[in-house]
Inverse folding.
């Protein structure tokens, strides 16, 4: 009997122990309390503005397949030998999925970030305001950093600075010069009507107009769509929508015209007929093998085209409705942030400032990255041959600066607006399963429900 | 003739060998009691490593998932208790329950087609069992089961691309008119990913059925032939009824694979075009890792688990009744 009881007791204890072990005492999951982003209270004088003289190892978390960050950190170690780098690389999708957890649990000193809003809200991203003041980043053209600011209401576009860019990229239209010559296009279209005309001529000549990617979860028709939006309307309301300003809507008259124009292109057969199954790699392989007249893409490919298709590729910004009108383009910093728990935040900030101000660093940024370096308007610019694609995209960047036509990407409005709303809707537009007005309504509904959570 | 041949199934002819029944018989006998009891504890000791892993990597995650489903949580900051609200959302939002319908459609491709084709293949392979071809055929049919699902997804997304092998073959035989980007078309995307699943599951089903067939007493076929039965009659009167157990295993495994599918679809279509191939597994992944809505994702995961059990358990009960 006693024996039995003792056995029962042992069993009970074991059960209780395993139960506790199984459910972690049932407390609410999560560690840190959600904090609203707050302006830093420290003054700039307290900020350390060097990497010091001790040997330190900076922890980096970068994107696979992009050589620029590594090229910059290598050069940095050359100039500051006491700083070495321990770099981990992952695909962008993996970084997106793990950003919050990595910032909280395995804090990197410098990390490639997809979007900063949630991380800033969760309090896992370092507020860079004091460094911005100390290094004078706040004197740079405001548009360079506005996408990296989050205000106390959690909206992007203004407020405290939560990340920096290694450069800022620019999107537009690349064209194959040989195919263009075949349809008699000798220079870049100056108006939207001229672009329509080129597409019609290509169609008539049996050339695929735009082998844009639009398959899987990456609706690449968002590139031409947003360019059309900016051709038909202003950029400010589009940015307000992306930054989640209250009352912002994508469902406007000018945007409707843009979607209708895109639908005309689809119906006219200007896109590849398997556009809904093309991924980014497939688009690149079609374009580089001469099977597409145009693609809508960004200057991160400039260096690549200069190497693999030297002299055969041209670039132009989306042409305006009227000749000589203002032009706009999606333009975004190559976003890097610092974890709120980083071991060497001051050195990370020093590095970010060095990238934007050091001549060698700016040269690497242009030559390896193909995009415009961050920093002050009058900062050093390396010489680039104006006939190269890199030269053309850099010049286009200047034009966008003059026209104040920079926009963030409509895919960045919320963390899931791209895979869950833009992509399926654009794929439906291709298949004729949704009309332009319904598309905009649907995206706006998804946007509102995603913000609400 | 209708009676399936006797099978050497342990539970059919003697009490199941779990520890409870052994203890009862030990007490009844009263002999070697201590040594038997020691043996009993020894038994627990043997399952301990497996049990520990099972608790740690199966039971614990299930309980934690259930716990998370009660919270509004982004995976990092403090969670807020919301009770069953996440479950209400799952049943109210068509973008959350819509993928479930796609998953049920996949059952046709993941279960029905592989089992029917598997029966035909297994019967054919068995007929040529003596030749060398049989071994080769078995290997070829089973290879998809060995290939990682991710690799299968990549291979098939190339084969099914607009300029892929499938369309090239169609064009070569004069069917160029029906070629299309199979995975990018709203009408064909779900059947296309379904066919990838069918290709993968066929090997498993064939092998299981083939193993089942090899256990059928050859004298039954001989008797049938003496009674004048042809190959078809043999198949439907002997082979098929004898394979009930194997078929149930095939149905169970493949239905679970269909309802909880993820890998193939994530690689080949990511749920597109326009949610045409979105399945619950993928939706859970998107909710948890791209939207950081861990609570809602957990609620959908628990719902999916209950759904899979609700579909699969009746299949099990059905066979038990048949057996009795």
């Amino acid at each position: 009997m006693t024996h039995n009881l003792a056995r029962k007791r042992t069993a009970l204890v074991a059960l209780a122990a395993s139960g506790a072990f199984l459910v972690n005492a049932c407390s609410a999951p999560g560690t840190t309390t959600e904090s609203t982003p707050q302006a830093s209270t420290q003054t700039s004088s307290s900020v350390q503005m060097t990497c010091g003289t001790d040997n330190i190892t900076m922890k980096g978390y970068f994107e696979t397949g992009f050589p620029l960050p590594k090229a910059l950190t290598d050069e940095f170690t050359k100039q500051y030998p006491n700083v070495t780098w321990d770099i981990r690389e992952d695909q962008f999708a993996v970084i997106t999925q793990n950003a919050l957890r990595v910032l909280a649990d395995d804090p990197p000193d410098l990390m490639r970030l997809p979007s900063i809003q949630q991380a800033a809200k969760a309090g896992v991203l370092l507020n860079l305001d004091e460094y911005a003041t100390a290094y004078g980043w706040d004197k740079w053209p405001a548009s360079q950093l506005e996408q990296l600011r989050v205000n106390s209401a959690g909206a992007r576009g203004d407020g405290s600075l939560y990340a920096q860019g290694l450069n800022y990229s620019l999107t537009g239209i690349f064209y194959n010069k040989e195919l263009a010559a075949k349809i008699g296009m000798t220079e870049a279209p100056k108006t939207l009507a001229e672009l329509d005309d080129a597409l019609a001529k290509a169609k008539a000549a049996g050339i695929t107009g735009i082998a844009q990617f639009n398959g899987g979860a990456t609706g690449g028709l968002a590139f031409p769509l947003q360019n059309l939006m900016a051709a038909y309307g202003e950029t400010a309301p589009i940015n307000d929508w992306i930054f989640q300003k209250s009352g912002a809507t994508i469902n406007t008259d000018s945007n409707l015209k843009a979607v209708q124009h895109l639908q005309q292109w689809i119906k006219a057969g200007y896109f590849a007929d398997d556009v809904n199954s093309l991924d980014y790699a497939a688009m690149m392989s079609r374009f580089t093998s001469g099977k597409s007249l145009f693609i809508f893409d960004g200057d991160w490919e400039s260096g690549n085209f200069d190497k693999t298709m030297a002299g055969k590729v041209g670039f132009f910004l989306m042409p305006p409705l009227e000749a000589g009108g203002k032009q706009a383009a999606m333009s975004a910093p190559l976003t890097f942030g610092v974890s709120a728990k980083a071991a060497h935040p001051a050195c990370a900030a020093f590095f970010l400032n060095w990238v934007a101000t050091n001549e060698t660093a700016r040269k690497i940024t242009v030559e390896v990255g193909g995009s415009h370096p961050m920093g002050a308007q009058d900062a050093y610019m390396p010489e680039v041959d104006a006939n190269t694609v890199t030269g053309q995209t850099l010049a286009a960047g200047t034009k966008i600066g003059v026209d104040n036509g920079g926009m963030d990407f409509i895919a960045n409005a919320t963390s899931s607006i791209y895979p869950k709303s833009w992509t399926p809707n654009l794929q439906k537009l291709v298949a004729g399963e949704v009309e332009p007005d319904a598309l905009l309504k649907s995206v706006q509904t998804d946007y509102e429900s995603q913000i609400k959570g | 003739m209708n009676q399936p041949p006797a099978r050497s199934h342990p539970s059919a002819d003697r009490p199941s060998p779990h520890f409870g029944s052994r203890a009862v018989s030990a007490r009844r006998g009263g002999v070697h009691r201590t040594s038997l009891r020691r043996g009993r504890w020894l038994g627990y000791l043997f399952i301990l490593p497996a049990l520990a892993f099972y608790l740690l990597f199966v039971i614990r995650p299930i309980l934690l998932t259930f716990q998370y489903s009660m919270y509004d949580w982004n995976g990092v900051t403090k969670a807020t208790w919301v009770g069953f609200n996440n479950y209400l959302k799952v049943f109210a939002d068509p973008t959350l329950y819509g993928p479930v319908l796609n998953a049920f459609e996949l059952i046709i491709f993941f279960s029905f087609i592989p089992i029917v084709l598997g029966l035909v293949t297994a019967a054919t392979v068995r007929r040529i069992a003596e030749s060398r071809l049989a071994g080769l055929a078995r290997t070829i049919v089973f290879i998809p089961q060995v290939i990682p699902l991710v690799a299968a997804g990549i291979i098939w997304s190339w084969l099914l691309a607009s300029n892929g092998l499938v369309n090239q073959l169609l064009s070569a035989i004069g069917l160029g008119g029906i070629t299309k980007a199979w995975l990018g078309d709203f009408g064909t995307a779900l059947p296309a990913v379904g066919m990838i699943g069918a290709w993968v599951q066929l090997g498993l089903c064939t092998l299981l059925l083939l193993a089942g067939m090899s256990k059928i007493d050859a004298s039954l076929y001989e008797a049938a032939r003496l009674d004048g039965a042809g190959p078809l009659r043999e198949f439907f009167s002997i082979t098929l009824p004898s394979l009930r157990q194997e078929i149930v295993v095939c149905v169970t495994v493949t239905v679970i694979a269909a309802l909880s599918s993820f890998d193939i679809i994530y690689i080949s279509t990511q749920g597109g075009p326009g949610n045409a191939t979105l399945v619950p597994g993928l939706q859970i992944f998107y909710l948890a890792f791209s939207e950081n809505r861990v609570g809602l994702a957990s609620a959908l995961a628990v719902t999916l688990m209950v759904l899979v059990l609700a579909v699969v358990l009746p299949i099990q009960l059905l066979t038990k009744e048949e057996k009795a």
